[in-house]
Amino acid sequence: MKGLFLFLGLLCVSVSRNDAQERLQVFVIPHSHMDVGWVYTVQESMHAYASNVYTTVVEELSRVKDRKFIAVEQEFFRLWWDTTASQWHKKQVRQLLQEGRLEFIIGGQVMHDEAVTDIDDAILQLTEGHGFLYETFGVRPHFSWHVDPFGASATTPVLFALAGFDAHLISRIDYDLKDDMQKNKKLQFVWRGSSSLGRTQDIFTHTMDQYSYCTPSYLPFSNRSGFYWNGVAMFPDPPKDGVYPNMSLPVTKDTLEPYAQTMVKNIKQRAQWFQTNHVLWPWGCDKQFYNASVQFTNMDVLMNYINKHSEEFGVTVQYATLKDYFQAVHQSNLSWEVRGSQDFLPYSTEPFQAWTGFYASRNVLKGVARRASSLLHSAESLFVRYRIRYPDGPVQKEWALDKLKALRWAVSEVQHHDGITGTESPKVADMYMDHLTQSMMSVEELLAAMFLLPQDLAISSANTESKEPSSDLEQHIIVYNPLAWNITTYINVSVKYPMALVSDDNGLAVPAQIQPSAESVADYDLFIVVELGGLQYRKYLIQFPQSKCNKGSSCGLTHAARVVTFETRNVSKWKKTGRRLLPVLNECYKLLFDQETNLLHSITDRFEKRKVRIRQDFWEYEANGDVHTGPISDNYIFTANELAVLAYKSVAMQIIPGKIISEVRQYFYREESDKNYTYSMITRVPVGFKDRILCQRLDQSYGMGPLVVNKEAVLRTTTSLSNNRTIYTDNNGYQMLKREYKQYINNSVSRNYYPMVREAYIEDDSSRLALLSERAHGVASLGQGQMEVMLHRRLWNNQEWNLGYNLTLNDSSVVQPVLWMMLGSPAAMATLSQQGALYLQHRPVVLPIDKPQRPWIVRERWDGPTVQPVVLPPNLHLQYLSIPGWCYGPSHVQHLQNLNLGGEGKPEKDFDRVLLRITHLFEEGEDPVLAKPTTINLKEVMQGLGEVKTVQERSLTGTWDISDLQRWNWRTTENTENSSSFTHVTTDFSVTISPKQIRTFFIYFK
Ligand SMILES: [Zn+2]
């Protein structure tokens, strides 16, 4: 039998080889691009079309054997599966999957944005979708279909390779670059997205041609569009009579030939841009296939006709999945050019259409999405800790998992390319915000429940009459460090009293500082120094004595620090500057503020003894809102019609010198006579800390908004560094990319903007100035030594399309983004900034506890000895520690058997399996010590949680046992050695993690 198949196979190959010379093989891939939330909410979309897509596609595929379909985003599919699909539909889906006629592509919860998403969240949303698909169908996606994200990051191909994908597909890249690639048949290549991982995680990448993912709709014989026989989806309700607007002319005996001619002509045009005779012909577009019947019945006839006249047309057409297409290209066995770690950002569609505005659109949503992500990260690891320590504890595991799942869903959902990008309509932005904030509140409830430990519960029910001081004169907080590193830092608690006494869970006084709040007149900011081991939490007591203590400083009481106010300075009166400089010092820096301008003047790096001139202030771009007078700015697009202008006329300053932090407050007034300031900048300089990562960061928060309409606000940092307008920005917090300034004929300002997710820096030979970020922004270096961050945008324009969909970005919110500024030698910064960015993203979780039922100080160490730290070396980051709660075992064969049994004997949710992900922070060669492969023993590292029983290494999203994972090998024109530094976990649980590796494990504890 084997021999016979081989013979037939050879025969087929020889026929197609002959054929291939003249005949094109066309893969018609039916698909629907379903934005999870863009103009309409998820609920509206489900009702108007999304649900019908899956219902009718499943029915139509079941009807005719040749038909195929690819399903991309999981959110709609999951909603359909859980709420609409009948048992018959479900059975059909399983059947179609088995036949390879329905194929899940990407498999993430959404098609995530690539510019402004953090790597952790991109992985989360992929894991979320993959977990569902694998659990439900035993299916593991092999291909990506990133057709709509606005530009392409070099991190994405790495993630897809790590998830086990065989090929990647992108579409939106810069127009002139795509043009060039088309002409030179270079749309396909092998992408080595990470310079450190190189060949081990490279992936074949297909760039869609100029027609992108929608079917070309122009018909020479009709004034209606073509190939969209079901028309355009209607909102809010589908039409009762089934007649939708813009339905294409039906395929009849009159239109058949012209339809065929049009399609073949398009196929032939596109074939010229590729090296093989295979043509990928996406059939579909946004919100298509809600009436799959009318779609397929027309297309069936058309395709049959073309195939019948295949010889004269020179093409054969077939319905295909993406696998069919990639398999054919792979079998061509050509050698492909290699692309390194360059990305495809920024993205422009035309000379004046630079899609760099969305890096900064909807700052609030971008901030909340990242806060939600970091809360989830904390809650997941705490739940692991809780489950291991109290397997039968009072926090019900299903209840806890539901809360975690809701937050996983919300954080995944907002990663959509019209979610976190800020390119959605206001009501959809509200939807994302609601889902995030509700599930965050719910997870905070879970945290509170987990901290209320069994012994506390027992006492709270038995002893309700404790002699507590009045509760508002006492505040109890728990502080959790979600990082697997020991940290010393300060936290900020908002309080109502000007005096406070802080003690830790050993009853010892803790250094603290109190001062009038920068934000609210009625409140005080209390800064508390916390020392926490990795994944450790501690309890702190804050008391508010009503009288001053007689014993002076020995009683540990801190009272409100003095605010020194400086005279407001008007820009018009600036003459000579730099004569009256006021120092603010800490162990790492000397900052000088200029009393003649009230602006920062310079920072001296005390380690390197190098002084760098630095000025920081706010500038604004004036956007054009009238399409008739020039290019506009909107949700997506940033068009700098003019250079930015200074956004203020005068500056006020206050300094609060302190023992923990010195705070500098600057207020910027639009007009000299204004009573209220337009922008504010609060800089906190940590004092008295030797830890360089703390001492070397200047914590800045900015207040702005509501902006005036059609203003785009930037924070500009102007320095004496000779960077030649070169800036380094990150791809999703994973890797840094060098961006040299490019001069264009038009639109140079906008086209030199890049996304900044966690970090951007400029440098010269001696110094590097880095900005670390807790949410995404746009960033550029437009002048020597300059770095500007776009923090907020408020726009309105009269373009019909924008108005019709309410996509003008009239965002009147007040925003308070935070950046940490760090200055040092390039080498020192390289060792600190990656870790620093994670310190910022995962600041300690501070949780107030309501009413403690008994005094807890002195008598005992509150759960102290059992909360052992979990500590990794400084170059390794504990990226994720979670109990996914999936219903499948670690054996693939067993899992498929269980599924085939139709749910009988199906495993329960596994509450004992822990998913651990560790990532190496450094690039090869980045640091002489830290950028080396690092060996850890997982049993030793994890002993703070419990005793490790078994460890199994998995693919990125957990679905593959790493030893079973074999990806397609693609030949390249480059002869590179396979310098794989991959080593498996040893039997004694040791593992060596090399630069930029991301390793995922299933761990069971005893
Ligand atoms: Zn889209």
Automatic annotation (TrEMBL):
SMART domains reported in the protein's UniProt record: Alpha-mann_mid
Cofactor(s) annotated in UniProt: Zn(2+)
Domain of life of the organism encoding this protein: Eukaryota
EC supergroup of this enzyme: hydrolase
Domain Glycoside hydrolase family 38 central positions: 353-436
EC number from the UniProt entry: 3.2.1.-
Entry annotated with the keyword Transport: no
One of the GO BP terms on file: mannose metabolic process
Record's cofactor remark: Binds 1 zinc ion per subunit.
UniProt-listed Pfam families: Alpha-mann_mid, Glyco_hydro_38C, Glyco_hydro_38N
One Gene Ontology CC term in the entry: lysosome
GO molecular function: alpha-mannosidase activity; carbohydrate binding; metal ion binding
Signal peptide limits: 1-20
Keywords: Glycosidase, Hydrolase, Metal-binding, Signal, Zinc
Annotated family: Belongs to the glycosyl hydrolase 38 family.
The protein, known as: Alpha-mannosidase
